[in-house]
Design a protein that fits this description.
The complex is a heterotrimer of chains A (738), B (97) and C (525). Helix content of chain A is 70%, strand content 2%. Chain A is mainly alpha-helical and 738 residues long. Chain A is globular, with a radius of gyration of 32 Å. Chain B has one domain (2-84): Orthogonal Bundle (Helix Hairpins). Chain B contains three helices and no strands. Chain B has helices at 2-22, 26-51, 54-84. The longest helix of chain B is centred in the C-terminal third of the chain and has 31 residues, at 54-84. The radius of gyration of chain B is 16 Å and the shape is elongated. Classes of the chains: A mainly alpha (738), B mainly alpha (97), C mainly alpha (525).
Chain lengths: 738, 97, 525
């Protein structure tokens, strides 16, 4: 609102086309969606009920067609036909789907360079139209471009473009090809809305929208119940989080009278620092984040979400959507910096999630499940970062994670693609193409993928100079230094002093770094090293994926390798002149600088020697993890999935994911269903209200009527007697006084 | 004279009431109703000595109505007899609830 | 547009024409039916539905002018007409509209042609009577929205009842007699008590000659009631409206009525008739008895009932095996939002409540039409009988998904706008109720996605489903307006919000007796 008076320096630049960023993918969605429907549509008969009778009579022929289509699609999931007919509109979809994303990315680059050229502390807000104006509640559909949303937009459109291109190869034979790209485009539209929203509600639109697309894409192969279940689970669990988000918005509006980011940033000072209101707002926002970003206790949907196509896992469930929670906290950094208790909660939950998910990752056999738990764990890291008030570090890890995790997922996609193709060529439909026990030794068949995945693995393990090392190190050293001195250290959580909590979080972070290195090395060893465990017939068919898929991997490999240069720590640039230090820190300064300073209390860093020690420790841990895995694991001795015996003891608990799903099912899902069915519906509705209320009153009336009807004998004699008796009584009554 | 007339009227009326209440035959009940009407007529005529000619006018009116009633009533009884072959009131309970 | 409408003095005749047209149409249908007595059933059905469609379309077209012609900011009624009807008892034909009524009238007139299209092939017996009943019903519903005379209002209120009773009772499913009688008795119970209250009000406000006065404006501006009287009167109105809404625990007629009613009956019932109850609160119960409505005990009780209804409806929806029943219980939940919005007494929540009213009309109407479409094909509504039909009916799947998302309240659809405004507004005065109500965002997703999955996703394993044919052009065409409404109100609800703003403010002012700045006296900021 303040901005309307003065012209923003970005107003004359490419930034004024900011609304084109989400609009382009939206156009892609509309075109691809219509193509998909057009191809699938055969309008029904004018009178459907007449046709139903007809269909019953002779459905044999129809059923046969339908069965063929069904069978074909089921194959498309676990095997790509050798030469199936491509979708009628495959060519045009292949252009439009990735095309709109690349166009968005180019536009975003133009805006990025425009932003670099001007000095603008205030965000550039582009008001599109008035959305819900009611009384003193003024809500605009408005987009906001500032340093933070710029970073996010570049990640989303950049990585999104790569993944779209990869999908052209990965999904080439799928009968739902245009539908896939329609959903993917729609996802990018909502994701851009999420990061570009100028108020919480527009962000919420994107927030729910990406959840919706995630639902549609997880259940993309909806003919299998497991996939449809997984999609539904993702949506419902996300909605639990969204409930928190909504309550946070109610609180914000009730106490600040606005939901605009700029106005909230300006008015946040009126909230009592550390007070109940701001703490409640932040905690409810964080509930939203635990849903979307798969943190304890709402993380269970993310591993199931692996039911979707692998590029979807890369884009939505690794690089972009699941990081929305981190973005949201960075976006609300002003509020979180005022609420130390909430921030400590964020950090603690992040730390616990990091180690919990990492421990599960140790024992998964499905290559995508390993990566899924790894994502949950890494998201925990990001929450440690934003929780301890190192917002830049959190965003930094978000970006580098987007690079290396997208690479890991797409790489695993390549592997799965190769396995599928091999199995399909030999008509092997029994073996699981995603189980690492069925792989092994793929290094020889897929050298490019092998190299790139090792880059990503070293990055996620935190080995210098790969990108993950810098971002992870920054988070851990921030946790350590905040434990030392900050507003958080002075607060307390659950009876523990903030300082204790933060040291605990730091230790959790270190421990999960070790476990991360172990399970990632395990994944690489079992997949690419040792002997090949694929059956004899399929083995010759294993080969590198086409270039349309490998190309994006190479780009991501470069990014994973050099992503750390975005924000080199000063302590390293002092020792080794690698380049400019803390670029991202300076870039994000206008957005999170004030909040960061408030949390750290000005004491930005611990002593240089301490910092050097921390870095050395991180490197040792990463290398130790890899070494432990290498020493303990024997890919040569691994048996295929079918030959393996079920695990026992603690291993089994890890493999079954600490039984969290089962516990939730028993404690939450079943009781609610039982309550709804037995108590509310059959009990209160049918039993109490209907039996006692409605039908009960009917019974009372009927009984009263029955009594009355007994007087009605139909005999004139009786009536005459009653008449006389009545007359006598009346006469007596009237003459009683005399 | 007045007392005797009213006494006779009361006696006739009582006989009529008892007849209506106790007899089963529809025709007899019907005749008892007529008896009651005429008992009232008698008291009207007797009392008109005291209160003027209005009572006598009323008697003419009642006799007219009674005639009409007799016509309708007997017709109904005949109709019932045709239907049920009986004029016993105990057998007629179509209005039973 | 304004000039054109003014030049034909649109406002002077529009309301009367809207009320008369359906009745005339019903007479025409009756005449046509009599004339075609000896034709065969198919020919009669075909003629009847065409005539009905023409009448309803004419009604819709004529009514469109209201969008521009009504003076939304004026405190006076638009299209006001007052003609003595039974002058000896002070009863007038007195109609007029404000923004709130206009939106509901437009919803009704625009929806009715679509319900005719929805019944196109499913009503095959006594079609003339069926469509005549729909037309009479329309007059009744429009009359309720327009009436500014309490006695006239009551006449229209009861007028709705009979056609709906017949529609359920004659064209319904297996247990139609039970359902229609239950519907009739529940509604009658409430409205008879309301009749007594209306008579009491009319007699209390009687003019010096002793003639009762039923004029809405006179009663609102002048009437005061001694002691507990206003509470009793409010209670009487509450009962009538609460049954209609339906509020928990007066809701059990609704699932039965919905399940047994033919598609058109369900659509009208859900989309428009349920709105009578909430409209009644806004138009009558609150402005007539502001003291009683703001009485803390009364208000808390209603808010609690509303929240119970919201959560209860959602939970019970979750375990329904019958799709129609599931949607019926979800209506209990949605209408609970409306009640919460009304009785939170903030501008945002009331405006949100009015939006939910309209949104529920669109989304649930479309859901019932969609259910009708698969029922026509499969003759079952059990979720367990379906599965995987997105494969054979892709268009149906897309439509059902969009409508379900709107009903869930996903942002970008109309459902979100209403629920969000209700909750954000109600949070200012009723924070706990609002937070509890907000949990329904979770349950709504559970029950609708569950239904969605069991119908259109999962394996296409049942042979009966493999031969299903996708939507035809008529079905597609009749759903498109709903989809358009869902997106329009979700993305740009401002035109509607603007039009109801002044009327909503007046209700809030009346309740609070304070200024029109939209904030709440003594509450919040």
């Amino acid at each position: 609102m303040l901005l309307q008076e003065t012209v923003h320096p970005l107003a004359e630049t490419a930034a004024r086309f900011v609304w084109w960023l989400p609009t382009l993918p939206l156009i892609g969605f509309v075109i691809n969606g219509l193509l998909s429907l057009q191809a699938a549509t055969k309008l029904g008969p004018a009178d459907p009920s007449a046709d139903a009778d007809h269909a019953h009579a002779g459905h044999g022929a129809h059923a046969h067609d339908a069965h063929d289509a069904h069978a074909h699609d089921a194959h498309a999931h676990d095997a790509h036909d050798a030469h199936p007919p491509r979708h009628r509109y495959a060519a045009i979809t292949s252009i439009i789907g990735p095309g709109v994303l690349i166009a968005s990315f180019v536009l975003a680059l133009a805006m990025f360079f425009a932003m670099r050229g001007v000095e603008a502390d205030a965000p550039f807000v582009s008001r599109l139209f008035s959305w819900m104006p009611v009384g003193d509640f003024k809500l605009d559909a408005a987009l906001q471009l500032d340093a933070l949303s710029m970073v996010m937009v570049l990640v989303i459109t950049g990585i999104g473009s790569l993944i779209h291109v990869f999908s052209v190869g990965y999904m080439q034979d799928d009968p739902g090809y245009p539908r896939y790209f329609a959903y993917l485009n729609l996802f990018v539209f909502f994701m851009l809305l999420l990061v570009l929203g100028a108020n919480y509600v527009v962000t919420f639109v994107g927030w729910e929208g990406v959840g919706l697309c995630s639902y549609l894409l997880i259940g993309f192969w909806f003919s299998e119940q497991a996939n449809a279940d997984a999609g539904k689970k993702a949506f419902v669990v996300n909605r639990i989080g969204d409930f928190g988000f909504m309550v946070a918005m109610f609180l914000l509006f009730a106490h600040l009278g606005t939901l605009d980011y700029t106005a909230i940033a300006a008015n946040a000072g009126t909230l009592e620092p550390g007070g109940a209101v701001v703490t409640a707002i932040c905690l409810f926002l964080f509930i939203g984040c635990t849903g979307k970003s798969a943190q304890i206790p709402l993380f269970t949907w993310l591993p199931d979400a692996m039911a979707g196509p692998t590029p979807v896992s890369a884009l939505i469930h690794a690089a972009t959507m699941v990081t929305a929670g981190v973005f949201l906290i960075a976006r609300s950094s002003v509020l979180f910096s005022l609420a130390p208790v909430a921030s400590l909660t964020v950090a603690l939950v992040g730390g616990l999630t990091a180690i919990f998910a990492a421990s599960i990752g140790l024992k998964q056999w499905d290559i995508k499940k390993v990566l899924a738990y790894s994502t949950v764990s890494q998201l925990g890291y990001m929450f440690i970062g934003v929780g301890v008030g190192a917002y830049t570090a959190g965003v930094f890890h978000l970006v580098t994670h987007a690079f290396f995790k997208a690479l890991l997922f797409l790489g695993s996609g390549s592997v799965i693609f190769a396995m599928h193709r091999a199995y399909h060529a030999t008509h092997n439909h029994g073996d699981d193409a995603q189980d690492m026990r069925n792989m092994g030794g793929l290094k020889a068949m897929m050298p490019v993928t092998w190299t790139l995945l090792w880059i990503a693995t070293l990055a996620i393990a935190g080995v210098p100079p790969f990108s993950g090392f810098f971002s992870k190190d920054e988070i851990l050293s921030a946790a350590y230094s905040r434990a030392h001195e900050s507003t958080l250290a002075d607060a307390s959580l659950l009876g523990m002093s903030g300082s204790t909590v933060l040291y605990l979080v730091w230790i959790l972070g270190l421990a999960s770094a070790l476990i991360t290195a172990i399970y990632m090395t395990r994944m690489m060893l079992y997949t690419f090293h040792g002997p090949n465990r694929t059956d004899e017939k399929s083995r010759p068919h294993l080969a590198e994926a086409p270039w349309v898929m490998t190309g994006p991997l190479v780009v991501l490999g470069v990014l994973s390798l050099f992503g750390g240069w975005l924000n080199l720590p000063e302590v390293i640039t002092h020792m080794v002149p690698l380049g400019p230090a803390e670029t991202l820190e300076h870039w994000l300064e206008p957005v999170v600088g004030e909040a960061t300073a408030r949390v750290s209390g000005g004491a930005a860093h611990v002593a240089v020697s301490t910092e050097q020690m921390l870095i050395a420790g991180a490197i040792v841990i990463a290398i130790a993890g890899i070494a432990i895995a290498k020493a303990r694991l024997k890919p040569e001795a691994l048996l295929t999935k079918d030959a393996s015996e079920p695990s026992r003891g603690f291993e089994r608990i890890l493999e079954r994911k600490w039984y969290v799903d089962e516990i939730y099912d028993a404690l939450v899902v079943r009781p609610i269903h039982a309550l709804s069915r037995s108590v509310l519906w059959k009990g209160v509705d049918v039993g109490l209200i209907d039996t006692l209320g409605a039908n009960g009153s009917a019974a009372v009336t009927r009984f009263a009527g029955w009594i009355g009807s007994q007087l009605q004998t139909g005999r004139v004699g009786t009536y005459a007697w009653l008449l006389v008796i009545g007359a006598v009584v009346v006469l007596r009554a009237f003459t009683a006084g005399n | 004279m007045l007392v005797e007339s009213l006494t006779l009227s009361a006696a006739l009326f009582t006989i009529g009431v008892i007849g209506v209440l106790t007899r089963r035959n529809a025709i007899i009940v019907f005749m008892c109703v007529e008896l009651m009407l005429n008992a009232v007529n008698l008291s009207f005529v007797a009392l008109s000595k005291l209160y003027g000619a209005t009572g006598q006018v009323f008697v003419i009116f009642v006799m007219t109505v009674a005639a009409a009633e007799a016509a309708v009533g007997l017709a109904i009884i005949i109709a019932i007899f045709r239907h049920k072959k009986s004029v016993n009131l105990q057998d007629i309970n179509l209005l039973r609830g | 547009m304004h000039g054109l409408l003014a030049s034909i003095s649109y406002n002077n005749w529009i309301l009367t024409v809207l009320l008369a047209l359906p009745v005339l149409g019903a007479l025409a249908l009756w005449a046509q039916g009599a004339a075609m007595r000896h034709a065969d059933e198919t020919a009669r059905t075909s003629a009847a539905r065409k005539l009905a469609l023409v009448v309803f379309t004419a009604e819709a077209v004529v009514s469109l002018g209201l969008w521009w012609s009504v003076d939304y900011s004026s405190p006076l009624w638009s299209g006001y007409v007052a003609v003595p009807w039974i002058p000896a008892w002070g009863i007038f034909y007195r109609v007029g509209v404000d923004g709130i009524a206009t939106m509901l009238i437009l919803l009704t007139t625009l929806l009715m042609p679509l319900t005719v299209l929805g019944s196109w092939t499913s009503i095959r017996e006594r079609a003339h009577l069926f469509y005549a009943m729909l037309l009479v019903l329309t007059t009744g519903m429009l009359g309720v929205f327009m009436a500014l005379d309490l006695a006239l209002f009551y006449v229209f209120w009861e007028l709705m009842l009979v056609p709906m009773y017949l529609i359920i009772g004659m064209w319904g499913g297996q247990r139609r007699l039970y359902a229609s009688l239950k519907f009739f008795l529940f509604t009658m119970l409430g409205s008879l008590v309301m009749l007594v209250a209306i008579l009491y009000i009319g007699l209390t406000a009687a003019d010096p000659l002793g003639r009762p006065v039923f004029a809405y404006d006179v009663i609102v501006s002048g009437a005061t009631y001694p002691g507990m009287a206003s509470l009793w009167l409010f209670g009487a109105f509450f009962l009538a409206f609460a049954v209609k809404v339906p509020m928990w625990p007066f809701h059990t007629w609704l699932p039965d009525a919905h399940v047994e009613a033919p598609t058109a009956g369900s659509v009208v019932l859900a989309s428009i008739m349920l709105k009578m109850g909430t409209f009644g609160f806004v138009r009558f119960a609150l402005p007539l008895f502001p003291d009683a409505a703001t009485n803390p005990a009364v208000r808390s009780a209603i808010v609690i009932l509303a929240v119970v209804g919201i959560v209860y409806g959602a939970l019970v929806s979750m375990v329904q095996p019958d799709f129609k029943k599931l949607v019926a219980y979800s209506s209990v939940s949605h209408l609970g939002f409306v009640m919460l919005g009304i009785f939170a007494f903030t501008t945002q929540s009331l405006q949100g409540a009015l939006m939910v009213n309209i949104n529920h009309g669109i989304s649930t109407g479309a859901l019932f039409l969609l259910i009708g479409m698969i029922y026509e094909r499969r003759h079952t509504r059990q979720l367990a009988d379906f599965g995987g039909i997105a494969k054979v009916m892709p268009l149906f799947a897309v439509m059902l998904t969009i409508v379900a998302l709107s009903s869930i309240g996903v942002p970008g659809t109309n459902g979100f706008v209403g629920e969000f405004l209700v909750l954000v507004g109600a949070f200012r005065t009723e924070p706990i109720a609002s937070v509890i109500a907000a949990t329904v965002v979770i349950f709504a997703a559970v029950y609708l996605l569950w239904a969605l999955q069991r119908i259109i996703y999962n394996p296409l394993s049942k042979p009966e489903n493999q031969a299903l044919k996708d939507l035809n052009a008529r079905e597609l065409g009749l759903l498109v307006p709903f989809i358009a409404g869902i997106l329009w109100l979700g993305l740009y609800p401002k035109p509607v919000l603007e039009r109801t703003q002044a009327a909503a403010n007046r209700v809030i002012e009346r309740v609070h007796g304070m200024g029109a700045d939209g904030s709440v006296a003594g509450q919040g900021r």
